[in-house]
Design a protein that fits this description.
about 250 residues; alpha/beta; 8-stranded mixed sheet; 9 helices; 8 strands
Length: about 250
């Protein structure tokens, strides 16, 4: 894999040693409401910086740009396949956004404290009861705080090509909050930075948005499973078709 990409990432991480503490210090005195506005702006600076170090251009389709530039309560889903997802997600992190992530991320030096201040919701995947409680706590905040929730239905990165089975948490959260699910499809992250590689190849990542879907507030476990499986099929079709040609680079 690209040794030059590994060098670029290493340089970006060295710069992050300065940038991330600056983000933490700037957010500390602010209320959560202010952090949900300023925090994403700072996250976008960091994400774009890291993509620039990696030689990656990020392109948003018109549908994705419309979704990400307009704050409204909703759940955004994404296909999670690469470390590059973290940088690309930071580069377009929308205002009022909180992310659902595994609890282990909270322990990562510098990045962990920064994500705590950004209001990230952590899920303990080893405790189903605790995970569901965290999701429902997030659902209670979504409408009250006009939150955008970013979550991967796969739950973790897949070590092989293709999608992992979708978990139902994203759809349970959307049902509890009474908000739509908007699927974001990321093209290029796995190809440019496969799992296990030290760094990425230069190239382009394209983010597209599919038609939103709604989840019945009274959906039971079987209904949630059906919604998750249908959305996974839509992702497979979109990924197989490849990135749309329309859209312009974010930076």
């Amino acid at each position: 894999m690209s040794w030059l990409g590994g060098l670029r990432v290493s340089l970006g991480r060295l710069v992050s040693i300065v940038v991330l503490p600056a983000i933490i210090l700037s957010l500390l005195p602010l209320s959560l409401e202010r952090r949900l506005v300023l925090g994403p702006r700072l996250a976008r600076i960091w994400g774009r910086m890291m993509l620039a170090f990696c030689g990656i251009r990020l392109r948003l389709t018109p549908a994705a740009r419309d979704v990400l530039e307009n704050r409204a309560p909703r759940v955004l889903t994404l296909n999670h396949s690469s470390t590059l997802d973290l940088f690309a997600g930071g580069a377009f992190y929308p205002e009022g956004c909180v992310t659902i992530a595994k609890a282990e991320l909270r322990k990562v030096p510098l990045l962990g404290p920064a994500t705590v201040l950004l209001g990230m919701v952590y899920i303990d995947r080893s405790d189903a009861g605790s995970a569901r409680a965290s999701l429902h706590a997030a659902a209670a905040r979504v409408v009250a705080e006009r939150l955008v929730v970013l979550i991967s239905p796969e739950g973790t990165r897949n070590k092989t090509p293709g999608l992992l089975p979708f978990k139902t948490g994203a759809f349970e959260l959307a049902a509890a909050a009474g908000v739509p699910v908007v699927p974001l499809v990321w093209h290029g992250c796995r190809e440019l930075w496969p799992m296990g590689a030290v760094g990425p190849w230069p190239g382009e990542v394209v983010v597209d948005a599919l038609e939103p879907l709604t989840v019945d507030k009274d959906a039971d476990r079987a209904a949630l499973r059906a919604v998750a499986d249908r959305l996974r099929e839509r992702y497979e079709v979109a990924l197989a078709a490849g990135p749309p040609t329309r859209g312009r680079a974010l930076f």
